[in-house]
Protein: Mechanosensitive ion channel family protein
Organism: Nitrogeniibacter mangrovi
Amino acid sequence: MAAAIVALSFFVLVSLRGLVRSRLRRLAERTALGWDDLLVDVLGQTQTWVLALVSLMLGLQSLALSEPVTTRLGQAVMALIFLQLGLWTSHGVGLVLRRRIEAREASDDGASATALAVAGFIIRLTLWSIVLILVLDQFGFNVTTLVASLGVGGVAVALAVQNILGDLFASLSIALDKPFVIGDFIVVGEVVGTVEHVGLKTTRIRALSGEQIVVANGDLLGSRIHNYKRLQERRVVFHFGVLYDTPADTLANIPALVREIVEQTEDTRFDRAHFQSFGASSLDFEVVYYVLTADYLRYMDVQQEINLALVRRFADRDIGFAFPTQTVHLASVPERLAGTTPSA
């Protein structure tokens, strides 16, 4: 009799699983909703061995068993139910996070994808911890003592791997705060390069010289990060000097000349130009302007265009660029050298 109940129960449960899945699949194909597809996938995780064990428990219930055995069977059935609920929930969480991670990776948002992966790990760890506690509680274990022991053990483990945990939470901070994302050109201390990957523990940066630099996430967040990818416009300051014998009227006209050159150059906005100071061997000017793009190559092209224009305009007006020189003034000439001329 018990064997018949086991066989019949298993047949009914397996048939019911197949029927529900097929009906839901047909319903999901008719709609553009995402939750029904998710439900079909989750129910697909109903394990055959769980159905077999439940059928076995139902068959044993028909036998004239002692009360302790009956109690244990009830506890076992509840444990199996908790286990199956855990499998459903874990698979559902995995599907949702996988879709979101694929969407983030498709948009090159690697930091968010990393955060979702970390969140998935934490959610699953929490979920199975709860399932384990519920199962143990069904069999009469002292869960309070177990939780306290796990707490003490967790503190010890956390102290042992605090650097790893620090980098792990730093990756979450990078993902949420987004000081940079994959593809950004950053400068961190002496590290200069393009972000290639943001992982759970480290971030990989491709340096200008070609090598890959691996930096711990905790070290990154503890440093000042210069993100040049988010540069909207570039402020440029440059200096030049002219000869000391340049007339004052010519010096007064130089700022207007520089302004004209900058304003005639595309992708620029002039700020100021001034006769700044008296240098050791030159009269020094300071010029400030903005390049209206973040492209470094365009900035260099603009600066080159301005420099060439300055050389041409100064040459047309007989304005000479200064270079380091020294003039020696002799207060007196020794008598033995007076009246002598250098030999040819």
Q: What stands out?
A: The mean pLDDT is 79. The longest strand covers residues 268-278.
